[in-house]
Amino acid sequence: MMTVAVQMLLMPLVAFLVGLVLVLFMRRLRARIERRVGPPLLQPVYDIVKLYGKRSQISHGPMHEISIMMVVGGVIAVVLFLPVPGMQGLAAHGDLITLVYLLMVPSLGLALGVGQCANPNGSIGISRALTAMVGYDIPLMLVVAGVAIAYGTTSLPQILAMQGGTWGVFQMPLLALAMLIATYGMLAKEPFEIYTAPAEIATGPMVEMGGKFMGALFVMQCFQIYTAGALFTVLFLGGGASWPGFLLKVFAVAAIPLTLTNLFPRYRAERVLHWMWKWPTGIALLGLALIMLR
């Protein structure tokens, strides 16, 4: 049995490697949808090496540096609380509420860093990112409340144990659907990519992020995709008794929003709020009501 210290070293490493494969998978899938060839096998690795190999002559002060540590540190902290096959990490010492708070750290760290840049494109982008976070956090909170009430606990290991016979997606289909939509918004793919908006605000928060800063954001994306898929898998798909089964579920969860990405144009900021507060929030409220009536 591995010690907690060993698990805390292995879990982020595994999450990062799986995240790299997920990034490649997402690019290849989108290329297939658009009838393109797609990037080579090691393209995500090349991107990270290239970005960290660049030197930037621009410095925006200590907060800019600290913000990157918050961005990457936040997603790594989330990974440590997500139980995976053979490793529990810190899951027994935290719960679902802890995860929800930690999920907000990367966006807040990015906001602090971009605020030091004094670039209007960056400021517009981060204001849109925080607006989107308000949009998808409300249905996410309702889902968390529904799951906690249904299982009588916020402990992730206990939630996994209670799904031994029936997955949560069959017990709470409306909450699962609401979280899937909220996860779609969390990944900031079209039509919810308002904070980057390449054709409008020159990639928003990333406009002043070059070299190691952009490399750190790329690493954060790898962790973020893995985290989104793993959290849904733990809450509604029973986790996994083995890594192949667990990863198959994580990849399936990531693939669902990717297949829809090219179908919709980008929404405006107010449209994102309206849509998130109408559909996933409404579905989550209905699912929560059904659980309360049991």
Question: In terms of topology, how is this protein built?
Answer:
Elements: H1 4-33, H2 43-53, H3 62-80, H4 96-115, H5 120-151, H6 156-162, H7 168-171, H8 173-186, H9 198-201, H10 212-236, H11 243-260, H12 269-292
Helix pairs in contact: 1-10, 1-11, 2-10, 3-4, 3-10, 4-5, 5-8, 5-12, 8-10, 8-12, 10-11
Distance between the termini: 39 Å
Instruction: Give the biggest sheet.
Output: none
Given as residue ranges, the uncertain stretches (5+ residues, pLDDT < 50) are none
Helix content percent band: over 70%
Helix vs. strand class: mainly alpha
Mean pLDDT: 89
Task: Write down the overall geometry.
Answer: globular
Strand content: under 5%
* Number of distinct beta strands: 0
Total helical segments: 12
